[in-house]
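Minimal example, chain plus uridine-diphosphate-N-acetylglucosamine.
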Amino acid sequence: MPSLVINGNKRLTGKVEVDGAKNSVLPLLAATILCNGKSVLHNCPILSDVDISLKILEGLGCVCKREGHTITVDSSGVFDCCIPETLMRQMRSSIVFLGAIVSRCSIAKLSTPGGCELGPRPIDLHLSALRQMGLEIKEDFGILDCKVKDRLHSADINLSMPSVGATENIILAAVNAEGLTVIRNAAREPEIVDLANFLKKCGAKISGAGTGVIEITGVSQLKPCEHSVIPDRIAAATYLSAAAITGGDILVENVDNEHIISIINCLEQSGCRINQYNNSVRITAPERIYRIEKINTLVYPGFPTDAGPPMMAAATVADGTSMFIENIFDNRYKFVDEIKRLGAKIKVAGRVAVVEGVKYLTGAAVEATDLRGGAALVLAGLAAHGTTTVGNIWHIDRGYECIENKLCGLGAEISRIV
Ligand code: UD1
């Protein structure tokens, strides 16, 4: 099993470029199904989750081509409307394909995504919204059998929680539906805005993306377009946290500064100096950061749940005690037992984690438990004295393109053992 071997206790310096956002490219790839032609997406990260999405598209009849960070999807020959269970299980967020498939084909068959490393991953909001739009859904033995008579219709949908995935699914279903669909309490994440911008270029009528109320007027057809994926705000947060934990001084390039305000505020609070430029951020960390009083993970524009673990890694060596409160997922703290093997002092009680900063961490062998928790272990390894081996790194490869190359470019000593 591949692993990352890190010789730690090295201060990071230099420049790192952030790739396109994983959480944006997946719904964008799903959206290409609707365009009935050749869509071109630039700034696509090279990640295993993207490979799985391409396999799903190919299974549906799309012709996909990747050249570096550009992916072309020709969806003119879509002939299938099923996603095999093996692919659904490899990527729980594949549920975002549902809205696009029923919008294009009027039928869809896929398995429910089930739980994941972060705990239960319910899709009740997705299904109830699509039912309100006229989709008949039969759920049998974990398979969703969906069909719509004729065409999906408009609905006034009030989400009880601003779910990112449900908002994406409704948008994808509504762009071709009959009439005006309104999503209230919609997710406001930048990835929603990116999806809406792509669809608008294709001819969709969408207003309000990025606010709590999104209005979509269905059109009969979309045309393909060319689009560049927004930068990955979570990868940016991870590299900034890597600088914070190593007392480093780095420039993070290809960033939308507005998307990471909550992260910048937190790093400034911890004593890091932040200089913001056009599309880049420089962080100059003190030798030892201060405690981060309280981090409450929230929906956007609050502090993102996905940036919690990397920031918690930084807090393990901070001067003082930091508190994290996780409000989105039930199982965010699985990596804590692993990071404690390096000497971190963390106490977890339900949604709260209290991190008592220690002067230094010591290298150890650990296993990644999930994507962002895995990144946190790598960061801890960068700061730790001695050698850290992080196993199960397929989790990390789902969301970070060549993490070891990027960190080596900043002066870290990491190698991948295969
Ligand atoms: C997306 C991101 C994920 C990020 C999360 C929150 C992708 C591929 N994934 O996940 O990285 O951590 O947003 O920013 O973009 N919920 C329900 N019922 C539903 C749907 C969601 O109860 O039908 C709950 C979930 O259990 C969770 C919360 O809503 O507690 C947030 O989930 P959601 O915003 O849907 O996250 P995802 O779209 O799954």
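DSSP finds 14 helices and 24 strands in the chain. The longest helix spans residues 233-246.
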